[in-house]
Amino acid sequence: MTTRGRHRSPDSSSPVTVGVEEEYLLVDPDSRQVRAEAEKVVADAAAELGDRVGTELTRYQVEVRTDPHTDLADLRDQLCSTRAAVAAAAARLGLAVISSGTPVLGQQTPPPFTLGHRYAQSVAMFGALDDEQSACACHVHIGIADEETAVQLSNHLRPWLPALIALAANSPYWEGRDTGYASWRTMAWGRWPVAGPPPYFLSQAHFQDLVDSLIASGTVMDRGGLYWDIRPSHHVPTLEIRIADATPTVDDTVLLAGVVKGLAITALADIRRGESAPHPRPEILKAACWRAARDGLAGASINLRTGEAEPARALMERLTHTVHSALSATDLPPVHAAQAHLLAHGNGAERQRAAHGRRRHLPDVVDHLIHSMTARPSPAATAFRPSVT
């Protein structure tokens, strides 16, 4: 994440900052298969975006980073201009760009990897685990300079991970077939040795001791190799929420960022009051994340208090009630606009399947994602609906 416009540690008087990292896939607009041309697209787009655009593990992927923002409308504007710049750079090379958690067509196994020492070290260390890492994510960063507070915030946000998976699920296809999951990317990442929901940390010292042990044991290369769904960033003063699939539209990214911001504001207030974080059983939390990855918003979720299945709608209503209570009047309109889009069209996985269902033709899914990449955001509304389903 870029360090431009430095994140600050939130307190009762300072606004919470939010920034986003998005990962995109390059595709051939004729064959609709992924193309390994990331270095060329990044070099072209960097003329406009500078160090806010870069490469990723595979040569199919381009990563972009926003500045930190206190206002979601400003974040939305920067996301629009950033996506437009990457799409234009790709078009100059005869390519198109999609934002999807996984490739739809043309994935090679193993994929073509980006050159560089770190990527080569990862492939040597983890072998075939890297073969499915052309998966793309949307990471949300909340500005937290104090790592003790970041660790406490991680504890408070853990129970919301299944809701965030369901909200942002956008990877139903892999290697040209429907996986049966709304978020196959979640399942692919879950295979790594340090991935999925983070532990419940007793303190910053507990966090650091565990990280030191994982590095010393050779389980991860360094702190950058911690692939927990939530982690204190290793290079900027933020808490990084890494759970979400790459989102198809700017509206979807703004909704995700707004939800995470609202949850963080609520949790930080609880931390200041000395309230303990909920501590669901790790086995039930993991099961709830699996169910959210399978069903998305269309099926059931697991209630972390009871361990029983319930409609995904119930979880989403709890989520949006919490967010509505926390966000400012200036942040509510773009969140409401994005939520209205979700209400009308479903999450990314549902939209991908709808595009396929019209003709049972996977290239139609890619065309839908190309269009979604730079689709104009919904006009901001002035009210907030307390439900997303």
How would you characterize the overall build of this protein?
- It is a single chain.
- With 389 residues, this protein is an alpha+beta fold.
- The protein is 43% helix and 14% strand.
- The protein contains 13 helices and 13 strands.
- The strands form 4 sheets. Strands 1, 2, 3, 4, 5, 10 and 11 form a 7-stranded antiparallel beta sheet that branches.
- α4 (147-157) packs across α8, α5 (161-168) runs parallel beside α9 and α8 (250-272) crosses α11 (332-345).
- The longest helix has 23 residues, at 250-272.
Assign the structural class, choosing from mainly alpha, mainly beta, alpha/beta, alpha+beta, or little secondary structure.
alpha+beta
Number of extended strands? 13
Overall 3D geometry? globular
The N- and C-terminal alpha carbons lie at a distance of 32 Å
Taken as a percent bin, the fraction of beta residues is 5-15%
State the order of secondary-structure elements, H for helix, E for strand: EHEEHEHEHHEEHEHEEEHHEEHHHH
What characterizes the major β-sheet?
A: 7 strands, antiparallel
Overall residue-averaged pLDDT value: 92
Q: Give the helix tally.
A: 13
Unreliable stretches, pLDDT < 50, 5 or more residues?
1-5, 381-389
Helix content percent band: 40-55%
